[in-house]
Amino acid sequence: MLAVVIPYFKIAYFEETLNSLSRQTCKKFRVYIGNDDSQEDPESLIEAFKPDLNITYRKFLKNLGGSSLTKQWDRCIDLIEDEEWIMLLGDDDFLSDNYVEEFYNSLNEIEQFEIKLVRFASCIVWEETGEYSKIYEHPKLEKSTDSFFRKYIDASTRSSLSEYIFKKDVYEKYGFRDFPMGWGADNIAWLEFSEFGDIYSINDATALIRMSSRNLSRSGFGEKLKAKAKLQYFEFIILNHLNKFSPKQRLGILEKWEILIYKHKKISLPFWVKTSSIYFKEGRILEVVKFQRRVILNVLS
Question: If we measure between CA atoms, which residue out of 70, 111, 81, 106 comes closest to residue 4?
Fold first, then answer.
């Protein structure tokens, strides 16, 4: 069975989130809501939806999201009972009416392929204008490394937390990495939860992702912490998982890593030694020379 887990903090669009769950054409799921000590009380709204939805609600007495968003996700997931599949749904995102039905329609094939991670089509909804983006679809089966590369290096797709469903056992095995603001923690999770294998995509149902003035992902908010997190998760991939990517992808990731280091003025002796060593291990002797030249030029600039 499916657990829909909502880490709650803001009420502005929460009714639309719950409405989208109440409209599901298949109700084979439970809803777990963990209130991160919000000042915006959702209890009366939750009570109104209880006749339509199987809801477990908990208000936590200490705010965690302000210091560690992933720890708030973790304690919300701890609320679930015996469900095998988990979705983390943002409190301002919403789903097409057939979302759960399409998941179950595909479940036999998902299990046949031994898939641990499922992804849906997605669409961005902008608060200011009410406009909808194009629908982002994906290959039915795609290696998680290819998906990561398409998002971060090719910039040919997008991804966010709400549009994924994952097996509970891989979550328990790997968990979410605790980066600042949770930034990038989901992207590392999709690599690890899939065990660097395939993601199964469902393009006949859509997660609608709201971009608002209160989103953590909004432009201009927490940019220093976001930059710190991005540096951390690219370093994590390079030091722990670079060999899972193709040779072309490895070079693209290293190039992106360098750009981030230079942009945020984080050149250091450990960076120089580690990156030189990686290029050398890749058998890219010319790249070692080019890399050292780039470092010198950026130090002098």
Answer: 81
What dihedral angle (degrees, nearest 10) is formed by the CA atoms of 100, 106, 112, 113? -90
Token readout for 56 is 């477990």
Question: Which residue, chain included where needed, has tokens 């980066």?
Answer: 179
Dist CA 97 CA 94 (whole Å):
9
pLDDT tens for the chain, 301 residues long, are: 999 999 999 999 999 999 999 999 999 999 999 999 999 999 999 999 999 999 999 999 999 988 889 999 999 999 999 999 999 999 999 999 999 999 999 999 999 999 999 999 999 999 878 899 999 999 999 999 999 999 988 888 899 999 999 999 999 999 999 887 778 899 999 999 999 999 999 999 999 999 877 666 555 556 777 788 888 888 999 999 999 999 999 999 999 989 888 988 889 888 888 888 888 888 778 888 888 889 888 888 7
**Positive or negative torsion for Cα 19, 23, 24, 27:** positive
Which is nearest to 18 in space by CA: 42, 1, 39? 42
Amino acid in position 284 = R
User: Crossing angle of helices 144-152/185-193, nearest 10°?
Assistant: 160
Residue 219 phi/psi, 5-degree rounding, is -65, 135
Our CA dihedral for 169, 174, 180, 183, rounded to 10 degrees, sits at: -60
Angstrom distances, CA of residue 253 to CA of 75, 118, 298? 32, 24, 19
d(CA 246, CA 262): 24
Nearest Cα to Cα of residue 118 among 133, 106, 126: 106
C-alpha to C-alpha distance for 72 and 59, rounded to whole angstroms: 12
User: Which residues, at least 6 apart from 58, have a Cβ–Cβ distance to it below 8 Å?
Assistant: 32, 33, 34, 35, 79
